[in-house]
UniProtKB/TrEMBL annotation:
Highest taxon in the source lineage: Bacteria
Domain ABC transporter: 5-234
SMART domains in the cross-refs: AAA
Gene Ontology molecular function: any one: ATP binding
Organism: Aurantiacibacter marinus
Name under which the protein is recorded: Multidrug ABC transporter ATP-binding protein
PANTHER family: ABC TRANSPORTER ATP-BINDING PROTEIN
Pfam families tied to this protein: ABC_tran
């Protein structure tokens, strides 16, 4: 699969020395959904702004559609769509006029059939002649997406697209995103709802303090970094983990009444070890009255990565 976007050594330092991007390397495959995860202030929006021409980098190179964006930014921008975090339009204008205007702004000829198609796909057609100020927050967010889709971009950035949107509207938006992928649109999204990235993304990248910590296929990341966690509720408290169980990654919680296992590698090893551990507890006459197990989510992996890097930086 060829790459639609290549970022090499990208840097952005603001006045005062704040480094928002620090030697970022990133390749985006054509036709994929890529989720960029990171805490607030990690550099996600700055990275998007640099590709979309809204932020001027202080170093590095960006190639979009095989062209250097610094030399061919107008042509590249025509093929890129952006749904920013902040709502941005004339609140007194009508929905359909704003979407038409956005299409024209990118040099596209008028196409009422296409405008109607976009508005209907986002359940906005019935609201087309309503002033934007009269819409709910979720519907305003849909208008932002309609504006971004109006010129049929090949590469679409969604910066927190479902922030402040209720569950029903969020579901509708993700259906629309899935339909765009089916048409071959490449989508890069940031989101605070990590379960959405787990559901939709083909690959995931984690960024923190302007640096990319990890990029991998979602399933491969889950396999390599996923863990199994098991909590054994003990019938009798222990003051320490018995030496006979030292082969397992164990510790005690809740004043010795809960034996906790955290291990495995996302390949099923953890589940097998928990089963073996349960048998060893019985053989050692350690009675337990309850057992709860869970597998790592993408959110667990994300939190662990960010916290580990922060801990390293503090040392």
């Amino acid at each position: 699969m060829d790459n639609i976007l290549e970022i090499r050594g990208l840097q952005k330092t603001y006045k005062g020395g704040v480094k928002a991007l620090d030697q970022v390397d990133l390749s985006i495959r054509r036709g994929e959904i890529f989720a960029l995860l990171g805490p607030n202030g990690a550099g996600k929006t700055t990275l998007i702004g640099a590709v979309c021409g809204l932020v001027r980098p202080t170093g590095g190179a960006i190639e979009v559609f095989g062209e250097d964006i610094s030399r061919h930014w107008k042509a590249a921008r025509r093929r890129i769509g952006l749904v920013p975090q902040e709502l941005s339009f004339d609140m007194f204008d009508k929905v359909i006029r704003q979407v038409r205007y956005s299409r024209g702004m990118f040099g596209c000829p008028p196409d009422e059939a296409r405008i109607e198609e976009v508005l209907k796909s986002l359940s906005l057609w019935d609201k087309r002649n309503v002033q934007i100020r009269e819409l709910s927050g979720g519907m305003k967010r849909r208008v932002m997406i309609a504006k971004a889709l109006s010129h049929d971009p090949e590469l679409l950035f969604l910066d927190e697209p479902t922030a402040g949107v209720d569950v029903e509207l969020r579901r509708d938006m993700w259906r629309q995103i899935d339909a765009l992928r089916a048409k071959g649109v490449t989508i890069i999204l940031t989101t605070h709802y990590i379960e959405e990235a787990e559901e939709m993304a083909d690959r995931v990248g984690v960024i923190n303090k302007g640096r990319i910590l990890l990029v991998d296929d979602k399933d491969a990341m889950m396999a390599k970094l996923g863990r199994t966690e098991a909590h054994f509720t003990l019938a009798t408290p222990l003051d320490r983990v018995p030496g006979s169980l030292s082969a397992y990654p164990l510790h005690l919680e809740q004043e010795g009444t809960c034996l906790v296992y955290r291990g495995g590698d996302g390949t099923g090893k953890g589940k097998r070890e928990v089963a073996d551990l349960a048998q060893d507890l019985v053989r050692n006459n350690i009675q337990f009255t309850g057992l709860d197990t869970r597998e790592s989510t993408l959110e667990d992996i994300f939190v662990d990565l960010v916290e580990d890097k922060q801990a390293e930086a503090a040392v």
